[in-house]
Amino acid sequence: MKTGFKILCLLIVLLQSWIANAGQGTDALDAFLASTQTIEARFQQKLLDNKGILLQQSAGKFTLKRPGKFIWDYVLPYPQKIVSNAKRIWVFDSELAQVTIKQYSDMLSGAPVALLDQRKKLADDFVVTDAGSLQGQDWVKLTPRSAESEFTEIYVGMSKNNLKSMRLIDSFGQSTTIEFEQLQTNTSLDDAVFEFKPPAGVDVVGQ
């Protein structure tokens, strides 16, 4: 769950930012970021070790409404969910039968997700470069400026002006690949979608 949350934070940072310098891939990404207020998408996620061996595979749905509201909903291999209504964040672990509740501002303190409510240049936190085209996608490479970043390289794949995939490489050489499917933008999403009621019988930790 911790790794999933860190990936979610980076994804949210990306979706709340804009790009200072453009090229083929960055042009497409910049246009997508500038025009997108809501996102609904299915995703497939794979974690590979530094030799390319599959360690973990998962799938689910991602929903975003700017600013501050999101759902990262794992369906496979077992249900896990992170929900934010821009005031509170609920982290529901079905295996542990536990819901952890944090104040939105507390979770944001010192974390990349603090950029959720900002329109900040990606170049402030990343070295942004075009990484060419491969497999029908125009790629953008993001290299974190902070030495404390969990990930050393992040690649964003754009296809037909839509977000298609992300690849995140950590300091151990492991890579997480996320493929987005059935992506829809700027649909009407009621704020009530981003409220979470803990299921009966689970432990609730926090306020």
Question: What do you see in this structure?
Answer:
The structure is a single chain. The chain has 207 residues and is mainly beta. It has one domain (2-206): Lipoprotein localisation LolA/LolB/LppX (outer membrane lipoprotein receptor (LolB), chain A), CATH 2.50.20.10. 15% of the residues lie in helices and 50% in strands. It contains 3 helices and 14 strands. The strands form 2 sheets. It has a 12-stranded mixed beta sheet. The protein has a two-stranded parallel ribbon with strand order 1-8. Strand 5 and strand 6 form a beta hairpin. The longest helix has 14 residues, at 2-15. It starts with a helix and ends with a strand.
Descriptive terms for the model:
207 residues, mainly beta, outer membrane lipoprotein receptor (LolB), chain A, twelve-stranded mixed sheet, two-stranded parallel ribbon, 14 strands
Instruction: Look at the structure and give the mean pLDDT.
Output: 82
Low-confidence stretches: 109-118
The CATH superfamily is identified as: Lipoprotein localisation LolA/LolB/LppX
CATH topology: outer membrane lipoprotein receptor (LolB), chain A
Helix content: 10-25%
Q: How many structurally independent domains?
A: 1
Give the percentage of residues in beta strands: over 45%
In DSSP terms, counting alpha (H) and pi (I) runs of 4 or more, how many helices?
3
Sheet/helix structural class: mainly beta
Q: Provide the succession of SSEs.
A: HEHEEEEEEHEEEEEEE
Main sheet overview: 12 strands, mixed
* Radius of gyration from CA coordinates: 17 Å
Largest sheet: spatial strand order: 9-10-11-12-13-2-3-4-5-6-7-14
Shape: globular
Total strands: the figure is: 14
Shape-level CATH architecture: Clam
Q: What is the CATH class?
A: Mainly Beta
